[in-house]
Amino acid sequence: MKNYSTAGMLSDNGIRESFKNGIDIFTEDAETIQFDLNNQLHVGSIDLHFRHLCRRFKSENTVLSYESVRSRSYTEPFELKENEKLIIQPGEIILTTSLETVSLSENFAAIITGRSSIARLGIMVHCCQEFIHPGHCQTVPLQIINLSPHPVQLDLSVPICQIVFFKLTTTASEKYSDRTDAKYAGEKDAEDSKIYEDVKNDFKEEENTKKNNFNEKKEKFRETINKYISPFLPSMICFLMITPILKENVVDKTWADVVGSIGNISASLIFSIFFLCIYIFSKRGKKQ
Predict the structure, then answer these.
(1) Tens digit of each residue's pLDDT (9 = 90 or more) over 13-26
(2) 3-state secondary structure of 178
(3) Which helix (H) or strand (E) holds 244?
């Protein structure tokens, strides 16, 4: 049966009433800034800080295709040391997360948005991704963007954004953190885009096509060997391998000479091993 209840955006009073009862915020690292509800709570939101572990886009001028995104090659991590400031260049995007972990029950959702003082510097804190699902239980992803014509310096100790909470009209069917298709469930430090998972069937089809093409080429190569080379391989192997080995290393040789000659591999032996591998390869294809 659906659980209907009073719903809407929460004021500071509503946030206090729901805190530890459907809404929880905390910091896990004891050496960093600790969450303080009294200092970070405003009349309709809670301030959040950004984490010192970040990722930035590489400077190479390459197209961000699904393939490059899947290989996770378009960003690089960096870490801000103690008391170090984050300097964002004009047009630059920094991927990071909130310092605080936000935990919501299935009865609450939230929206992340900027602070006025930060926005007046030309800084956005998200790139169209502001919704926080019911059942969220992790840090909040941030995409900090500098829209101003100047480099902007940000301090870790200064809140970067604020979070607004909503009580749902009905309880969500499940938690975001429990969904099998939740690509970023459990995220703590910033992660690259996983959009390739949205088109994984296309990638799977592409990979199968490449695999089939490779198998077709391999089979054609095997057929060529069987038709033109395989009939002559036994005699070539015998001529290049068995006769020279017996003549050079066994005939009229003592046991000590035979052992000592192992290290002196002739060119004929190398070629014979090569042809032997081809012969085995061609025969294996026939069996399959």
Answers:
(1) 999 999 999 999 99
(2) helix
(3) helix 243-245
